[in-house]
Amino acid sequence: MTLGKNSTLLVAITGGLIVAVILIIGMIWMGRSASQSTVKAVRSVSLLYLNELAGRRKQVVEDTLNNNIATIKVATNLMEEDDLKNLEHLQAFQTRMKKLFKLEKFAFVDTKGLIYTSLGMQTDIDKYEFNHKTISGPEISIKNVKNEDRKAVIAVPVDIPFNGERFTTCFMEMDMHEMLAGVSMTSQDENVTFNNIYSAEGYALSNLVLGGNATEYNLFEAMNHAEFDKGYSLEKMMQDFTERENGVVSFTYEGQEETLCYIPIAGTDWMLTYLIQENVIRDKIIGVNKKLIRDSAMLSILNALVLLGIFMYIMGQNKENTRLLLAKETSEAELRGKQAELGERIVLQEKLIQQSHALSDALTAAEEANKAKTIFLSNMSHEIRTPMNAIIGLDNIALNDPEATPKIKDYLTKIRDSAHHLLDLINDILDMSRIESGRMTLKNEEFSFSDLIKNINTLFSGQSQEKGVDYQCHINGHIDDYYIGDNMKLRQVLINILGNAVKFTPSGGKVDVEVERIACLDDKSTLRFMIKDTGIGMSKDFLPHIFDAFAQEDSSTTNKYGSSGLGLAITKNIVELMNGNIQVESEKGKGTTFIVTVTLMNSKLSKTEDEDIKINPQEMSVLIVDDDEIAGQHAKLVLENIGIASDFVNSGKEAIEMVKLRQARRLPYNLILVDWKMPEIDGVETARQIRAIVGNDSAIIILTAYRWDDVLEDALKAGIDSFLAKPLFASAFMEELQGALKKKRSMSKNNVQKADLKGRRILLAEDVEINAEIMVMVLETREMEVDLAKNGKIAVEMFESHPEGYYDAILMDMRMPEMDGLTATRTIRAMNRADSKEIPIIALTANAFDEDVQRSMQAGLNAHLSKPVEPDALYETLESLIKA
Ligand code: ADP
């Protein structure tokens, strides 16, 4: 045992040593290779950096020179005839130009080589490099290149007659330092780099040859004493200077390693150079290397420590194993003792298992019972709906009977209302059972959010108006036209809450809806609906129970308002399925606010994009007239988002003034959006007055949160082209605008596109006699002819036995003996005749489950009406589906 322990220790120490040696060698190798790579990398980065710097400086010098050439040209252009009258005028002109352009010398040269300066004449033309006789373009040269009084000379050819002579050249002189001031020739970056300009012969245009290290004035002379690195030479460099090529040389000068980079300056024979002193770079590299080596050493030590730790752990583990072996032997003895005890326990456990089996059987039974409950509810719903269909249908027919007395009509209306209430109850109970059994699921379909809001607003503005409640709906900020989610369920949520708000708000009160997108992340948006009413409110005690099923604050509510207490329980469940939440604040007698958030998926669809728009937003101008500031600003924002500019005014009076102004300027608005309900002059009157001014130039659309059927005729007479529901949506706006612009004045004849139902032949498949009877009556009311089939099979045969186009539509009950509606529809759609695919088939069903609707659409049904069928809904569906 002792021997084993010792040998483990030995192995551990030897292993540790080997690893340490490998690590140290690796570290040294890594340090070396890193330092070499660093030198290379730093060098190439420095060269890149130098090239970049030189390029930029060169540009600055070239720009300075070009500016000066331009200056001379401008100065000579400023010369007038009077300036050439005599020498005195000429000198005065030169003095002015020198001052104006801050020049040291501004001179002219005549054909004989005489120089005219502002101070007098000069005869030293041979000091200048340009040739006054042959000069043909701008020339830049240096005067006194070899001594410190160097001047940059910029000469351009001119042709100016003067006093019987002629000037051939105009030149200016500039102090070299001043000219290069913008280029900053001195050293920078803590003496790491120097730049300079040299003439082609190597003379420094500033005084610092090789950054001030050399005593010579000439670069080539200085470099004569330099030792060039491999691949570089003075000859090559001089050749580059003469041939005006970019280049770089590395060399040692006075024991200093340097790299010089040069680049020619256009328009001159000068070279711009950059000098970098390698010792400075090297210091930096050494710094970097030191850090690298330090870091890798740290890493190695860390590695070694970790390895040591692992070795220690292994050794510890070894010891532990020995201990465990001992413990095992002891415990085995104890175990034998305990086995007897265990036997008893097993007996007990078996009993437990038996019990849990019994429990699980009970659970299965309960689940089955639950399933049975759901099936029962679904069937019951069907069973109840079938007679309800008869009740509502017959009630409707009786109500329309001209012989019914007012008293009878009153009874019939009460029967209708109770029947509808009963139906709502059945729907709620069905929903609740679906929620309880976890069968409530959400659809994920693209839907038009704008249509949803439009629809809700039409419904509730109508209801509110009837009750004398003020109803408003605002959209804050931007909301897309389309989202992906469950349209019908969202509608149900809004209808539940808004229904309560209107129901519990007495006449004279207000119901406000605000919609806002509060988050838009990745592909999802969270929308918030705030529904505020000034109704009867609720007490603090009741609020915590508001979302419980069958909860009502006051049981008399049921009678007074006709409700079940299920609406909000269902609503809360749906909202939570939509990853949202619902909150309520309320005060007795003051009112209630519901805040609902739901998360929907963003849709790429947008009506304005996928429709063929012939309207060019940039060319449109719109006037918005609304007394409600928020609604007006919202409309403006919606238009802005589609690129249409608009003006916004708060009253009819202002609007009329604006329109007059625009008309006078012959810039009429293309469109005027007028709110209907406004104080003083209302929308219709405003429109009438505007129409009188603009004639046929502008389209006028009325904006309203209310139903407009009642005022349609008045509005058309006032010259209104169309109506738009508030709040404004881009898609609806574009749609309406297109329509309005197209058929501006012909709206009165507009409603004739719908099919006329008179004389149409309908095939009705319905097995329940009384339902069939009602349906026939409903259809015959609009003078349609009806053929009845008692089941799906007969319906198929009847369709087949009649010629193409004989029937205009088929009304198909879903549950029928022999052949059900779905199968019949599929069979008809699969027939090989021209009308089999086209004939509208409308499903009639007592079962309002969403799943059924979906299945019926898949089978090829065009529409789905749930029983009891509302005659108006049926007519509307037939009108829209039958070809006109
Ligand atoms: P229902 O309206 O069918 O009775 P709900 O679940 O929709 O059932 O509502 C439950 C109860 O909550 C209502 O009976 C009413 O007492 C109260 N309630 C809901 N909304 C409001 C509201 N806006 N103002 C006052 N009370 C409300």
Q: Characteristics of this structure?
A:
884 residues; alpha/beta; seven-stranded mixed β-sheet; six-stranded antiparallel β-sheet; 22 helices; 49% helix; binds adenosine-5'-diphosphate
**DSSP helical segment count:** 22
Main sheet record: 7 strands, mixed
What proportion of the residues is helical, as a percent range?
40-55%
Q: How would you classify the helix and strand content by structural class? A: alpha/beta
Bound molecules: adenosine-5'-diphosphate
Portion in beta strands: 15-25%
Distance between the termini: 105 Å
**Net shape:** flat
Overall mean confidence score, pLDDT: 81
Query: What is the β-strand count?
Result: 28
Rg, rounded, reads 48 Å
List segments where confidence is low: pLDDT < 50 over at least 5 consecutive residues: 608-613, 744-753
Describe this structure as you would to a colleague.
The chain has 884 residues and is of the alpha/beta class. Helix content is 49%, strand content 20%. It is built from 22 helices and 28 strands. The strands form five sheets. Strands 12, 13, 14, 15, 16, 17 and 18 form a seven-stranded mixed β-sheet that branches. The longest helix has 122 residues, at 278-399. The termini are far apart. The model is unreliable at 608-613 and 744-753 (pLDDT under 50). It binds adenosine-5'-diphosphate. Adenosine-5'-diphosphate (ADP) binds at residues 496, 500-501, 504, 533, 535-538, 546, 551-553, 557, 563-569, 592.
